[in-house]
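Appendix B. Chain record.
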Amino acid sequence: MTFAALQAGALAGCKIIDLSRVLGGPYCTQLLADHGADVIKIEPPAGDETRGWGPPFLDDTASYFIGVNRNKRGMTLDLAQPAGQELLRRLLADADVLVENFKPGTLEKWGLGYDALSREFPRLIHCRVSGFGADGPLGGLPGYDACAQAMCGLMSVNGDAQGEATRVGLPVVDMVTGLNAAVAVLLALNERMRSGLGQFLDITLYDCAVSLLHPHAANYFYSGKVPGRTGNAHPNIAPYETLPTRSGPIFLAVGNNRQFAALARVLGAPALPDDPRFATNAERLQHRDALREALAELLAAHDAATLAEQLLRAGVPAAAVQNVEDVLGHPHTRHRGMVLEQDGYRGVGSPIKLSRTPATLRRLPPALGEHNDEVRREVGPVPAEKRPA
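Structure tokens predicted for this chain:
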């Protein structure tokens, strides 16, 4: 293997015990593992359920699991058994962070909740990812990405104006929850340098979904009007939407009058900003339909990809609408290191770029229980009466 095993990342020396499954927690720990943390992913004997979320599969492991579990060591442990609980405590003895997404109350039932662990390991940072938290009107209930999108208003503002509320086409709540969990871990690690103490990090899908409501929440706070769906159009800016061209749709994201004037010049209609209907953003919003018609006529002769690059070079945010294959094969995606390919592994690279300590690919996603023996050797022998089966 040619993994960069000797290249220490920004989190080298940080040991993380990952009890999480599915997406939010594993995405968090992969972000941290990419930057050098030693992440030990502990799965129940049957494994993380996403190992079976396919096709497609690679060597009987679903691509879903592969996508968020690289750079981790993997072991299996039955935490419902005393022997498994004892071995977890051995692992936590020198760990910095515990990440888990058990339903609130589950670890507490086993004597492994924050109160118990913090007494035994006062420096341990305990990050829990859950649906709603442990208390409150919805406390302790299970949470899922699509349900959070529906419950927290995201679906209500996503979709065509005359269509139905629509789920965002990727698990945005799970992934933002994982990202917020990673930020929380880093904040707690920094604070521990002053206090010497760990703390409990309470990260919920519900909170993270609500946090995504900008600008709709801000608009509601200051107008009292309930936001609705506007398709691809922005509620506060025009033109900021997809429009047709000869070869397909182009997205224009024109945020100010200077950009609108540059758009008009590139399209060969430099007088367009002189039209009083389009002179300011407020006027363009008020006359959005007329603006859309005028732009569609000007765009009809253009190729979306060629025009988008012209507009970008003229300072106008624009993009042809690409599919997943298009973007993963784009030269700039490769230039930015956003596609990793090694020894049969293909994955999306880390978006977090550090100049001296970059993210590295050190380990492929682990097979179920791949590092059981290695990790158990590190923690030492477990007393015979407590030895895991």
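Further analysis of this model is presented in Appendix C.
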